[in-house]
Design a protein that fits this description.
The protein is of the alpha/beta class. The chain is built from 14 helices and 23 strands. 33% of the residues lie in helices and 25% in strands. One of its GO terms (molecular function) is ATP binding.
Length: 469
């Protein structure tokens, strides 16, 4: 097998897989409906041709295998051509399991929150200890400047998403990742486009728990009742972590000085080690705590773990400083679920203590377009000084009568005494911030999309404001 074609190649995971296949010596090409930077540039740098648009003729080069991304439906003309031609096909998760994870120690990080950061922490710390892991995560690791590495070591770290695999394979992606070690950070309702309720999601996580072999390890956050429920029937060894008093792995002393946090970790009430990080927020300390359980089981010493934590630079789009103009800090964060929004706001407010915080949210996921978490969002902004809520992105994709209301969130926050504004357009949000933000303020922008290029537009507007003063 030499030639592999990827349908939906410009997605983060599919583009990463294309890079892994190219690095492994395969002739890789692909297609996508929307081909634009930065993924188009990344593919060009790798020498991977990309056809724009899904068309049957994209398969004329007669690939030996076609990888079908979960952006595809069976109604796409290219998918129809695939079936008519009888070409062999598979999904990203299945190929990843067979080509890159097989015969390695697979560490799969799952859960509603913290998957990308925890996976990144694991990959970097293993790299620092000389283990040269393979990895595939859902964000760009700043230490590597990449979302993936084939690696030559015996460990592969993968972010295990519960979203479905492909139109012909409706199981969660993590089912295909052959876990030797698994970590579950949290379980909440999400992905309302494919899951009808939380009970259905928990059933999928039960399947994941059963995949961990008897000689493997399952690490779970004891703070989450849904996690406790799905892991109660595990046949593998289980180690717990969290704030709960009976957790195996626990955070002890925590102190912060000059932007660095020093913390100690205990295992079964015995001190394990002292660690350091430049990451902010207690949720990130919990991510490191869960990672510690996995790393210790893989044989790393406290000193090796600390070396990884101390030098970990984080993930792009996670509390990332996009620019500072006139001492106004503009942050970018991927938060969109109300639990993540709340944790991110709290972390930023604590880190930038005493400075005014503007929190800007774009509701745009399949779940946040719906009114499922309308009330939960009203409880997520209590630490901010000002909340700005954008229009829902493509609200027509949510069922009529069950759509999230930015206007209602503004009203709910105002009733709590929070300075809240619903501002429809990106340009109007930028104009408002450029006119009202003062030196020393923090602007936290939260979206899992490009948000109309708001970051660069705001930085440009702030620069213009400085020049006219």
């Amino acid at each position: 097998m030499k030639k592999i074609h990827l349908m939906g190649i410009c997605g983060m995971a599919m583009g990463s897989l294309a890079g892994m296949l190219k690095a492994s010596g395969y002739d890789v090409r692909g297609s996508d409906e929307h081909v634009y930077p930065p993924m188009s540039d990344q593919l060009a740098e790798l020498g991977i041709p990309c056809f724009e648009g899904f068309r049957g003729e994209n398969l004329d080069w007669e690939p030996d295998l076609v990888v079908v991304g979960n952006v595809m439906t069976r109604k796409h003309s290219e998918a129809i051509a695939l079936m008519e031609r009888g070409l062999p096909y598979t999904s990203l998760p299945k190929l990843l399991g067979e080509f890159f994870i097989r015969d390695r120690h697979s560490v799969v990080v799952t859960g509603t929150h913290g998957k990308t950061t925890t996976s990144g922490i694991l990959a970097w710390t293993l790299q620092q200890s000389g283990r040269d892991p393979g990895f595939l995560v859902g964000g760009v690791l700043k230490n590597f400047g990449s979302t993936y590495s084939v690696g030559e070591g015996d460990v592969f770290v993968v972010e295990g998403d519960e979203y479905d695999t492909a139109f012909f394979d409706k199981v969660p992606k993590f089912i295909h990742y052959r876990p030797t070690s698994g970590l579950i950070t949290s379980i909440e309702f999400d992905h309302a486009d494919i899951y009808e309720d939380l009970a259905r999601i928990k059933r999928e996580f039960l399947k994941f728990v059963r995949l961990i072999p008897a000689d493997g390890l399952l690490v779970t956050c004891l703070d989450d009742p849904n996690v406790r429920e799905v892991t109660s029937t595990a046949s593998s060894p289980v180690q717990t972590y969290g704030n709960a008093p009976h957790a195996d792995w626990a955070l002890d002393t925590i102190s912060t000085e000059n932007g660095q946090t020093t913390f100690t970790i205990s295992y079964k009430q015995q001190q394990f080690g002292q660690f350091h990080t430049n990451m902010i927020g207690r949720h990130n300390l919990l991510n490191m705590l869960g990672a510690t359980a996995i790393l210790a089981d893989l044989g790393l010493s406290p000193e090796e773990i600390d070396r990884g934590f101390r030098t970990f630079k984080g993930i792009k789009r996670r509390q990332e400083v996009r620019g500072i103009v006139n001492n106004i800090v503009v942050l970018d964060d991927f938060a969109h679920h109300p639990t993540a929004v709340k944790a991110t706001i709290e972390a930023v407010k604590t880190h930038y203590h005493g400075r005014k915080l503007w929190s800007v949210l774009e509701p745009r996921t399949a779940t946040t377009r719906r009114d499922i978490f309308q009330q939960e969002y009203a409880q997520a902004f209590h630490c901010t000084d000002v909340a700005i809520i954008a229009d829902v992105e493509r609200p027509e994709k949510a069922p009529e009568g069950h759509r999230f209301s930015s206007e209602q969130l503004e009203a709910d926050l105002t009733q709590q005494g929070i300075n809240a504004r619903h501002i429809s357009s990106v340009d109007a949000i930028v104009e408002h911030l450029a006119s009202h933000a003062k030196p020393g303020d923090i602007v936290l922008i939260m979206s899992n999309g490009s948000f109309g290029g708001i970051h660069q537009k705001l930085l440009k507007a702030l620069n213009s404001s400085c020049q006219t003063v």
